[in-house]
Amino acid sequence: MTSVEAHPPERHVLVGVSGGIAIYKAVELVRLLAKEGFGPTVVATDASKRFIMPLTFAAVARAAVLDDESSWQPSGGWFEHIDAARRADVMVVAPATANTVAKLANGLADNLLSAIYLAFRGPVIVAPTANWAMYEHEATRRNLEILAGRGVEVLPTGVGDLACGEEGAGRMASPDAIMAAVRRAFAGLAAGPLGGRKVVVTAGGTREAIDAVRYIGNRSSGKMGRAVADEAYLRGADVVLVTTRPGGETPYRCIVVESAADMAGAVVTECADAAVLVMAAAVADYRPASVAEGKLSRADSPELTLSLVPTVDVLSQVGRPGLVRVGFAAEAGPRIDRARAKKAAKNVDLLVFNDILAAGIGIGSDENEITILAAGRDVHVPRTAKTACARAILDEVEGVLTGR
User: Fold this and answer.
1) Whether this model's pTM surpasses 0.90
2) Catalytic annotation on 389?
3) Is 236 helix (H, G, I), strand (E, B) or coil?
4) What is the residue extent of each domain of the chain?
5) What does pLDDT average to in each consecutive run of 10 residues of the chain (404 residues)?
6) CATH class of segment(s) 2-183
7) Pick the catalytic residue: 164, 254, 271, 389?
8) Phi, psi of 104 (to 5 degrees)
9) Pairing of strands 13-17, 367-374
10) Domain 195-402, what fold?
11) CA pair distance 348, 375, nearest whole angstrom
């Protein structure tokens, strides 16, 4: 058995923060970037440090903050604007105040952030923020148009209560919206085996109706499937997520289903032109033989007996040549022998085994420990984040696609 440490790929995001009250959202953005393996480096303007100390960003990014004071040193730091631009894959400016937007649009380089912008050659995302009057001023609007004309993704602002007590446009985009833009940027940069290929991923536990209110289900959170879908998208795939647990903004298509039959129907349709299917969903094995109309009443039936019948086998519906299929086996205990039998019975290319009884991993957790059963070998991934497990799974999928 091969044991691998699921190290994150080299993805680096440069986050420029300028002096606006919306900077508190940037702390959450940087935390999310670090959590999801995007290796954020924060570049702080002098004005931004009046709102939040650099130490806060350093703590959530787990990396030193770059600023004018620390980066223009006689030890050679005068090249920091070039070095930082070289290291980064994607650049984000959030919050981007009217002053910073004006500097970027007009090519000024009087601080580290604006100098890095001029030296950077990758995708740039700007999240403007300002009082509504400043945001709607002709000069600001023109500067944002100039940036958009150069290929910068200028995120829309929200409308609502502003810090000044007034109401209108100018609220900075949410961290989730900025994260979606970052994912779009990395997907556009991807050039690996999954680039341009359609990948269908299932997630969550199905719900099999008893009546109009009740159902038989399971505790699956959908986190593992969502992590696989996110990673496939970052690798340039055309992702479709079929899930019972929608949540949050996604840059890829999401189909919401409920029952095993619903999921099977969606998977069959989407896999007609897909290259990969990853069945991470916890599909119920049984469903009630009949569904009661309306709502069952305990007063009418003090006892309830359900007759259960098998649900549809989703994987068996899409076993066609050319489709790489990945199954999952969540077992109660270290029963990898059952996983091997399932792989053989389903005739899938890969099967991912995990022990749901192991403490702190599996259902509902952000972490997992998996063993990927591949052709002629097993790949064990020790306990780690589900995002890292997703990377290991897709590494093996790419191996199947390329024949390595």
Assistant:
1) no
2) no
3) coil
4) 2-183, 195-402
5) 60 94 94 92 94 94 89 61 89 95 94 94 94 84 96 86 63 89 90 92 94 89 93 94 86 93 96 96 92 86 88 88 92 84 91 84 83 90 91 94 84
6) alpha beta
7) 164
8) -65, -40
9) unpaired
10) Rossmann fold (3.40.50)
11) 10
